[in-house]
Structure formats: C-alpha cells, structure tokens
Amino acid sequence: MKVYLIALLACFSLHQASAQEASLSVTGEVTHPLQLTAAGLSKMKRTTVALKDRDGKEHKYTGVTIPEILDLAGVTTGKQLRGENLTKYMLVKCADGYEVLFSLAELDTSFTDRTAILADQLEGGPLPAGKGPFRLVVPGEKKPARSSFQVTEFIIRFAK
Ligand SMILES: Nc1nc2c(c(=O)[nH]1)N[C@H]1C(S)=C(S)[C@@H](COP(=O)(O)O)O[C@H]1N2
Ligand SMILES: [Mo]
C-alpha cells in the first residue's frame, strides 16, 4: 500500500513537472505541429551566432537554426518556398506579450546567408533570468529589436 502511494506521488510530481516545463510551439501552416522543450532542443544540431545588444556589445548565442526547426514542423522551406508560399509569414509570440514578424523568405537559407537561431545559451551558459529559456537571435540587422526573448510560439500563416 505504502509503495503504491509513493509510486502514485512520484507519477503525479513528474506529471506536474512536465506540465510546467517551458516549451515553444510551432503551429499554423505546418504538417507536424511541434512542442519543443529545452531537452528536445538540446539534442538537435547546435549553431552559434553573434548578436550585438542594444548598446553595441557583441555576445555569442548558441541554439538551433530556425530553418531546422521549420523543417521539423513541415513548414515550406527551400525549393518549396515559391509562388503563393512566398506570402507566408512567421509570427513570433513571447511570454511578455512582445510580438514580431518575418516573411518565411527572410529566414530561408535559399534566400539569405544570415542564420537566425532559437538560442537557449548565451556565452555557453543559460540565458539570463527574464530572457529565457529561449531567445530568437537574428544576426545581420542594425538593431536587435526582432531578437525576441522569452519566445513561446512560432505561428506560420498565409498573409492573404
Ligand atoms: N520578449 C521581448 N523580446 C524583446 C524585447 C521585448 O520587449 N520583449 N525588446 C526588443 C528590443 S526593442 C531590443 S533593443 C532587444 C534588446 O536586447 P538586448 O537586451 O540583448 O540588448 O530585445 C528585443 N527583444
Ligand atoms: Mo529596442
């Protein structure tokens, strides 16, 4: 009886932990809606990019490239990104209500050499409090305003 109770409690607390675990969802015009967790992200191919903060100081962020995440969700990329697919966009939503938008072509490796990533690390450590657990890092822009922190959702849609 006691063992059962302990097992039951263990299951319950595990369930609670997973329910509270931060994640990022990829939904909308996708063939495989995703719910990416920190653990899942850490198992994917890692890429490091540099981003200047609002004071012009450069920092190194590490994570997974956005095209790799979009491919995993079955979003149109590469050769599929033609015709009406060029009217698709990715809306980024954050825990603090901040939102930014990209056309899919802006993020695609067949259109641009700059590599946007979903970062979970800054200079080899976790992201600072209030900026994590995931930050979209967009190099090659004059200001870091679209490099959104506390990202919770990528929503893919047609603009028309
Ligand atoms: N979630 C979220 N992300 C955000 C913002 C915000 O208010 N909320 N501000 C943006 C703006 S306007 C700037 S200039 C940069 C600042 O990034 P930094 O702290 O690395 O300089 O974060 C961007 N990302
Ligand atoms: Mo800003």
UniProtKB/TrEMBL annotation:
Q: Which keywords does this chain's UniProt record carry?
A: Signal
Question: A single Pfam family, by name?
Answer: Oxidored_molyb
The residue ranges of the Oxidoreductase molybdopterin-binding domain are 59-140
Q: Name the SUPFAM superfamilies on file.
A: Oxidoreductase molybdopterin-binding domain (SSF56524)
Record flagged with keyword Glycosyltransferase: no
As recorded in UniProt, coiled-coil segments are none
Task: Look up the signal peptide feature and give its range.
Answer: 1-19
The identity of this protein, by name, is Molybdopterin-dependent oxidoreductase
